[in-house]
Amino acid sequence: MKDNILISLNAILVVAVGALFFLHFGSKKSTTTVAPATNNVQVKESGLIAFVDLDSLEANYTLFKDKKVELEKKQKNIETTLTQRAAAFQKELYELQERAATMTQSEGEAAQKRMYQKQMELEEMRDRMTKQFVDEQEAFNGELQTRLDSFLLKYNADKRYSFVFSHIKGGPLLYHDEAYNITNDVVKGMNEELAKENKK
């Protein structure tokens, strides 16, 4: 009984969706076929879609490339600092263990307390440096998104695109027609804006 009701409901929904589709698209007079946008071609019709390839944007946008180098350098410095501090801690701990047999109980307890404090300081340093690095990455990602949004508002001032999607390899967009790829225009425009900013 439930199966029959579900089948009936599904059939009704299919008919309803079909009717809405017909009413929405069938009531219009023959629609004009709009040629897809190609890079460097100014298309004035509205209602088009486009996409920006984020991998290509990151590879070619000057600000991103410069920041990536800067962040990689900072990450390496953090890793080097933490590795050196951890090695120094391990060395001191080893030396302490070597002398443990000759130490009095009070000296041993004081040394153990001191090493515990150093371990805590090392962990706090690691957490602080990691947080600062992650915060800087997130701040830059926010700045990059703001710059992209701002540029696309100007780029699409004539409202020719109804949607501009982001595309990244392995992302949810499984297929795309390169005719709708505006990445080159976006990269060029954003690099030009950046060059003007740097001249000020």
Task: Explain this structure.
Helix 3 (62-99) packs antiparallel against helix 4 (105-155). Mean pLDDT is 82; it is low at 1-44. 69% of the residues lie in helices and 6% in strands. Strands 1-2 form a two-stranded parallel sheet. It folds into 2 domains: 1-31; 32-199, no CATH class. It has 200 residues and is mostly helical.
In short:
69% of the residues lie in helices and 6% in strands. The protein has five helices and two strands, in the order H-E-H-H-H-E-H.
Question: What are the main properties of this structure?
Answer:
two-stranded parallel ribbon, 5 helices, 2 domains, 200 residues, mainly alpha, disordered N terminus
Write the layout of secondary structure elements.
Elements: H1 2-26, E1 48-53, H2 54-60, H3 62-99, H4 105-155, E2 161-167, H5 183-199
Helix pairs in contact: 2-5, 3-4
Our count of domains comes out at 2
Alpha plus pi helix count: 5
Strand content: 5-15%
Strand order of the largest sheet: 1-2
What composes the largest sheet?
2 strands, parallel
Q: Indicate the overall shape.
A: elongated
N- to C-terminal separation?
75 Å
Q: Radius of gyration in whole Å, from Cα?
A: 30 Å
Query: Which structural class matches the secondary elements?
Result: mainly alpha
Mean pLDDT across all amino acids: 82
Please estimate the helix content: 55-70%
Tell me the number of strands.
Answer: 2
